[in-house]
Amino acid sequence: VGAFVGCALDKAGHRVAFLVRRGDHAGKLSQFGLSASCSADPAFSHRIPPSRIAVGTDPQVLQRCTYILVCTKRVSNDHVARLLLDSNTTATTILLQNGMGAAIDVIHAAGAAGGRLPTLVDSVVDLSSTFDEERCHVALEESLDTALILLDGACAASEKLADVMSSTSLIVRACAPLSDFQAGKLLVNMSNAVNALSGLSILDMFLGDSGYRNVLAESISEAQQVFRAGGITPHAPNPRNELQVRFFPTILRLPTCAFSLVAGRKLRGKEDAKTSMSQDLDLRYGNRVFRDGSAIMVHAWAMVICPSCELAFANDCAIDLVWIKRCPTEVAYLNGEIVRLGRAHAIQTPVNEKLLNLVQEVEEQRLGRSRKVMTASELLVAVGMSG
Asked: Is the separation of the CB atoms in 282 and 295 below 8 Å?
């Protein structure tokens, strides 16, 4: 995500710099530059050549930025807070992350450190990209008219930032209340845990044993109940997917043949793809045999600093890459968020609690062993749905 946004900004005429934490990543970018394409739109192509790409390791580059777009895993937000505090930046910082309330993570981390942060803006990212580490090439795996970013309309800076980013090929707009759209995206992202535990490709999980879909449907039903109690109405970031978000559990519980007719089109190209959570666990145990929409987020965490196009000012962008082999997944911010909200509203969420515990057990498994995967029957028993 970070690499594609950075290339899109550069293509739109913004000056982009890359802050790379590891020397080998800096070397790769210096040698190959960074290029981007769109699989659904061959006309979109852009390359930042080695002769023009600005690569550095000094986080003080953040001081020269007008906007900062953070595309890290949520588990890295303590480090994000320290980086922002140490650089003493005043740049408005947008968090392009999964789940709900990412800004709260950073605020709490900064509060513990006793520092003052710049303005933070939550968002919803609804796009899928793949990153080729060897060639430093990122590809958008969907059409440009479906790739979008929603910014928190309650923040005064969002409208102006949306104007800035709309100069790119991406659809960017400010929305309020953002929590409704974050909830809709979270419902879709809840397939992460089931897919991670299955060890299967997305296609095989959805079109194979219906037990996987039944577990996912129950976890989403619990989430919908929790959101209703909290006064949140989940909406799809993209209006085209509104019916899917609203009736997701019903669709998942259809017989496989009927489910394939209804949802099969959305599964095209997913024969080998896995969710980012499954990839995280594969990477942790050395199984790097995947190429999925968030591959860059598996291989590294990225911080993209977005420039402003205000008048004649040329502002920098940065990307910070950090190897995350031993980092936990984001299950605590997906199923774990439903468990926390359920407790806050006195609603039981047993399936989500079990999925949270099962993924965390795999995270804690000793490295070097083959990671645990579960059949649909085993998963149904584990979450208490076998009866």
From this structure: no
Residue 348 backbone class (left: φ over 0; alpha: ψ -120 to 50; beta: rest): beta
Does 140 score more than 50 pLDDT?
Answer: yes
DSSP-derived 3-state class of residue 70: strand
- Does residue 341 sit in helix, strand or coil? helix
Cβ pair 142, 40 in contact under 8 A: yes
Model confidence pTM above 0.70: yes
Residue 23 has pLDDT above 70, yes or no: no
Q: Which amino acid is at 84?
A: L
CB 217 within 8 A of CB 252: yes
Dist CA 134 CA 85 (whole Å):
33
3-class secondary structure, 152 = strand
Q: Where does residue 317 fall: left (phi above 0), alpha (psi -120 to 50 degrees), or beta otherwise? A: beta
Helix (H, G, I), strand (E, B) or coil at 172: strand
Query: Of 79, 258, 239, 104, whose CA–CA distance to 175 is shortest?
Result: 239
